[in-house]
Description:
Elements: H1 2-11, E1 20-25, H2 35-48, E2 51-61, H3 68-75, E3 81-87, H4 91-96, H5 103-116, E4 120-126, H6 133-145, E5 150-155, H7 163-169, H8 178-194, E6 198-201, E7 204-206, H9 213-219, E8 232-234, E9 238-242, H10 246-254, E10 260-264, H11 267-280, E11 285-286, H12 287-294, H13 296-311, E12 315-318, E13 321-324, H14 332-339
Parallel strand pairs: 1-2, 2-3, 3-4, 4-5
Antiparallel strand pairs: 5-7, 6-7, 8-9, 9-10, 11-13, 12-13
Helix pairs in contact: 1-2, 3-5, 6-8, 11-14, 12-13
Amino acid sequence: MILALAKEMQLRKSEINDVVETIYFGGGTPSVLTSEEINFLIQEVYSNFRVAENPEITLEANPDDLSNERIFELANSPINRLSIGIQSFFEEDLKMMNRAHNAEEAKKSLTEATKYFDNISIDLIYGIPGLTNEMWKQNIETALSFGIPHISSYALTVEPKTALKKLIQTGKISEPKDEVASAHFQILVDTLQENGFIHYELSNFGKENYFSKNNSAYWLGKKYLGIGPSAHSYDGVSRSWNIANNSIYLKGIQEEKLPSEVEILSQEDRYNEYIMTGLRTIWGISLDRIENEFGEKFLKYLLKQAEKFLSDDLLSIIENTLKTTRKGKFLADGIASDLFMLGED
């Protein structure tokens, strides 16, 4: 697999002419890679692409993968940012979500990681059944006590065919409630802003100079290249995604064929994507860009669709930029769907 990833980079090196600003090891659990394998893959990036002088190089990891020795190894590699899947500091939450780590491992991994890494992000989940407002505040305060500069936080979602779905169906736990998630979200926003975090994207909070360069690239519509099974790429006009099946992926790469599908984005697709990503961020939706890139028809349609949200104080227009208000933030995705262009003349 490691050699196939390197081979895919070689096969696709002509796809990116821009300077690579961020390298991200994600999807699954890349922390199972050895330091030698990580270093080899980073070197392959440098061999095939032009890389910025100080790129952001992130590794996703779970607390149970981050022993003291492992953290020390990573600190002595080119990795300069860790994204750790903490989810919660409460044992009962972790068990319910079927996480492999426990609360003690979560704290221990952060204690050790902060000795070596300045740039750390953690994931926290809110809206969990049984998680009171007070407990949620404790989760946030515990995270803050480690001095980390970035937090990504998401509402609990129940996927089909999971242990969590089964527990809800059998009545062992209650279904997540929107009003609980909404209350947790407001507590999160208020607490982190009081502690110097900038709410720069719906689910992401960072201190000054600690926004995720990798994720910001998606939201700002920059090009990116995804390497490996299931990986997605975007070149400004089309999206492509590699096959998820490992053996088919490996066979394709060995035959020097890219096992991927491509979708050319229509003008409506690109407009809808900009609406979705723009509304989730502090940068909002530039009405000038809508007019220049998509034309007057799209601008008129957007303003017409936005009228009810503007009058309900869920959206505002500041310096010709459409943004969610404090009241509208939690509802950003739902509002965006009402602003989409869906085949209208």
